[in-house]
């Protein structure tokens, strides 16, 4: 009898990841809060989230594992309708790790926390034997104040709602991959940044926003499929409207990677009522020229349907394999 084993694809935002979460964690740990499968848990007046970071390489163009560990948890709280206030920080470091690199990472954590206006209030530090880890793993947990009237939920999503992405996609994923492989010369930096200022302003001005999520592991393709499965509402997106920079697109073509599955670390996907979609987009355009309405909720389709530039259609499913392990 062959027993299924855990593989890299279970941790990379693939269909296997989604199934594992439902078949193991939800089945054994289910409760009303966890069952919502949001990026952060809303508990009364507070929003709480946690995340772990294992990226290779740990320093990459535009960012590093330190900034990533702060911005990742901050952004999860923001898109879930909270204002991040406090973080905990835990590190597992491999014996032989350079103290200079540790200081560099802690400096990045300090800078990211000041940018996000959060305090690191608790932490832990462990060292394991040489060869028992890969340089450094970081975990952060965060808590924030719930924004009044912000209520992101799959249940809010309705037919004809518009789907907006706050900026161009794929820069983080392709930056890490190119830095790892060192085979092509592209000047592409990660989009890793704090969403706190932008997203807090969005919630304050447009509390009617129905849902929000940041497209990290698995990119916008995985997020859209999670929205479809969570809301039971079909999704139609338009290829010509999806913002992908030319250099990102060129690098993806060379590497054979679909940009829709690339992780972003400074973008959000919004589901907004049709009647306010243009106002939301115009608001975003003030700070992000590449923000775009990329599609809509469509009760006439099942799953996530991508309408191509040529006028054809294809299903944009979860990835069933992994292209980019150890990406965030």
Textual characterization of the structure:
The chain is of the alpha+beta class. It is 32% helix and 23% strand. The strands form three sheets. A seven-stranded mixed beta sheet has the order 9-11-8-12-10-13-14. The chain has a five-stranded mixed beta sheet with strand order 1-2-7-5-6, with helices on one face. It folds into two domains: 139 residues, PurM-like, N-terminal domain (60s Ribosomal Protein L30, Chain: A); 162 residues, PurM-like C-terminal domain (Phosphoribosyl-aminoimidazole Synthetase, Chain A, domain 2), CATH 3.90.650. The chain starts with 14 loop residues before the first helix and ends in a 13-residue tail after the last strand. The protein contains eight helices and 14 strands. α2 packs parallel to α3.
Topology diagram in text:
Layout: H1 15-29, E1 41-43, E2 46-53, E3 59-60, E4 63-64, H2 65-79, E5 82-94, H3 99-116, E6 119-128, E7 136-146, E8 162-165, H4 171-181, H5 196-205, E9 211-213, H6 219-231, E10 235-238, H7 246-255, E11 269-272, H8 274-285, E12 292-297, E13 304-307, E14 313-315
Parallel strand pairs: 5-6, 10-13
Antiparallel strand pairs: 1-2, 2-7, 3-4, 5-7, 8-11, 8-12, 9-11, 10-12, 13-14
Helix pairs in contact: 2-3
């Amino acid at each position: 009898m062959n027993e299924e084993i855990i593989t890299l694809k279970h941790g990379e935002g693939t269909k296997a990841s989604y199934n594992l979460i439902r078949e193991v964690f939800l089945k054994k740990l289910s409760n009303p809060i966890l069952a919502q499968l949001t990026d952060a848990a809303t508990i009364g007046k507070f929003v709480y989230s946690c995340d772990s970071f294992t990226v290779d390489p740990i320093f990459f163009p535009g960012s590093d594992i330190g900034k990533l560990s702060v911005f990742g948890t901050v952004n999860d709280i923001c898109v879930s309708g909270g204002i991040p206030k406090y973080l905990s920080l835990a590190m597992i470091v491999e014996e032989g790790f350079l103290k200079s690199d540790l200081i560099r990472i802690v400096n990045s954590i300090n800078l990211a926390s000041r940018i996000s206006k959060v305090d690191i209030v608790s932490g832990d530090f462990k060292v394991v034997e040489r060869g028992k880890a890969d340089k450094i793993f970081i975990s952060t947990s965060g808590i924030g104040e719930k924004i009044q009237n912000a209520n992101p939920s799959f249940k809010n999503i309705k037919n004809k709602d518009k789907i907006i992405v706050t900026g161009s996609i794929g820069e983080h994923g392709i930056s890490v991959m190119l830095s790892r492989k060192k085979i092509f010369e592209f000047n592409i930096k990660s989009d890793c940044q704090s969403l706190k200022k932008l997203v807090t302003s969005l919630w304050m001005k447009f509390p009617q926003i129905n849902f929000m999520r940041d497209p990290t592991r698995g990119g916008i393709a995985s997020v859209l499929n999670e929205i479809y499965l969570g809301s039971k509402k079909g999704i139609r997106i338009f290829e010509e409207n999806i913002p992908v920079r030319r250099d990102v697109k060129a690098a993806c073509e060379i590497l054979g990677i679909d940009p829709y599955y690339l992780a972003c670390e400074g973008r959000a996907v919004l589901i907004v009522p049709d009647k306010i979609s243009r106002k939301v987009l115009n608001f975003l355009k003030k700070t992000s020229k590449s923000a775009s309405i990329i599609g809509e909720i469509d009760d006439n389709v099942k799953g996530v349907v991508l309408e191509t530039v040529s006028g054809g259609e294809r299903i944009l499913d979860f990835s069933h394999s992994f292209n980019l392990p150890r990406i965030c």
